[in-house]
Amino acid sequence: MNIHEYQAKQLMREYGVPVSDGRVVLKAEEAKTAASELDGPVWVVKAQIHAGGRGKGHFKEASAGEKGGVRLTRSVEEAADEVQRMLGRTLVTHQSGPAGRTVNRIYIEEGAGIARELYLALLIDRKTSHIAFVCSTEGGMDIEEVAAKTPDRIVTFTVDPATGISGFHGRRVAFALGLEGRQVRQCVELVGRLYRLFVEKDAEMLEVNPLIVTDKGELRCLDAKMGFDSNALYRQPEILALRDETEEDPKELAASKFDLNYIALDGEIGCMVNGAGLAMATMDIIKLFGAEPANFLDVGGGATTEKVTEAFKIITSDPQVKGILINIFGGIMRCDVIAEGVIAAVKEVGLKVPLVVRLEGTNVELGKKILNESGLDVIAADDLADAAQKIVAAVKEYA
């Protein structure tokens, strides 16, 4: 789960991390009051969406010369005007995709005198199961671009959870960033506080880009992006309360409410599979036979008829789906449960596209019998390759 910049900074303030003062604005008429509560002479107006690259992004139907989603203003009135221009519009960045994201929140923040821009992030290193620090002197840029062009300017190291964070780690970051004097002590404190925030709030990612050295020689987190482990939200109610459902794909949101693992993709064949590995293999073989998957959907090992019904409804709600492939290997999951769920869903939402079903495993004969006697126009498949070939062919014929 991701949160907005202003929410991340509020958490950082609670841990004593240096950030600029700011106000969030949800309605245009609140903008002038919010800006007047901050000291000038510069006010930064930032669109709040769950995507990076806001400053380099553009609004749909933008006028010539219009700025991106981060704008510098030099008066309360100008800041309020920029808020009015951005609220409710669609911002497109390199991370949002061509559809962009609607700006429903604006963050107005005090400006800062910048002497240097740096990069600092904490991530989960899946290989070592440790928290990793990533730092670079090339702040204010996309870290992917830095990695591609000047990888030697990125320093990465992990923290052993058995020993935890120490002053050594902070000094290592300070050395990598070329900090000197009192900035080294500030960096040690900053690293310790960010690490504690990361661990205590079950974060997956915390990115500060840029981390700046101000013109007064102080460290400050000028931007912040945070993501959290969705599996740990049951013990983080205050984090869950920060969730902005308007930033999420409606289908993915619906899936999460039924404990389904769903990710929307750009293809035309909807997939319903049990098991993440089998789902990945199903998507791969669809591509192998010349088509593209419309989603990743793992119904899990213990799905009920109700969950299968909801999964099918989510797939069919996607207008770009031109065919559906159900690929079930019944281990814990029973094939008859899948069959009953599919029938219930079709009766509720109808079936307007080709449907290929491949069942194998527990109660497979019963599952096939239920489907065969249902009267549904189902294309049966014997194995995964046969299923993929049949759905690709059916979609091409349907188109």
From TrEMBL:
Cofactor entry: Mg(2+)
Every ATP-grasp domain range: 9-55
Pathway annotation: One-carbon metabolism; formaldehyde assimilation via serine pathway; Carbohydrate metabolism; tricarboxylic acid cycle; succinate from succinyl-CoA (ligase route): step 1/1
Annotated residues for binding of Mg(2+): N209, D223
Gene Ontology molecular function: any one: succinate-CoA ligase (ADP-forming) activity
Broad class of enzyme this protein falls into: ligase
Keyword DNA-binding part of the UniProt annotation: no
Any Pfam family matching the protein: Ligase_CoA
GO cellular component terms given for this protein: cytosol; succinate-CoA ligase complex
Ranges annotated as spanning the membrane: none
GO biological processes: succinyl-CoA metabolic process; tricarboxylic acid cycle
Binding site for ATP: K46, G53, R54, G55, E109, A112, E117
Record text on cofactor binding: Binds 1 Mg(2+) ion per subunit.
Gene3D superfamilies with a match to the protein in the record: ATP-grasp fold, A domain, ATP-grasp fold, B domain, Succinyl-CoA synthetase domains
Keywords: ATP-binding, Ligase, Magnesium, Metal-binding, Nucleotide-binding, Tricarboxylic acid cycle
Binding annotation for substrate: N274, G331, I332, M333
Keyword Nucleotide-binding: yes
Catalytic reactions on record: (S)-malate + ATP + CoA = (S)-malyl-CoA + ADP + phosphate; GTP + succinate + CoA = succinyl-CoA + GDP + phosphate; succinate + ATP + CoA = succinyl-CoA + ADP + phosphate
Quaternary assembly: Heterotetramer of two alpha and two beta subunits.
HAMAP family for the chain: Succ_CoA_beta
PANTHER family with a match to the protein in the record: SUCCINATE--COA LIGASE [GDP-FORMING] SUBUNIT BETA, MITOCHONDRIAL, SUCCINYL-COA SYNTHETASE BETA CHAIN
Name recorded for this polypeptide: Succinate--CoA ligase [ADP-forming] subunit beta
Species of origin: Paracoccus alcaliphilus
Gene expressing this chain: sucC
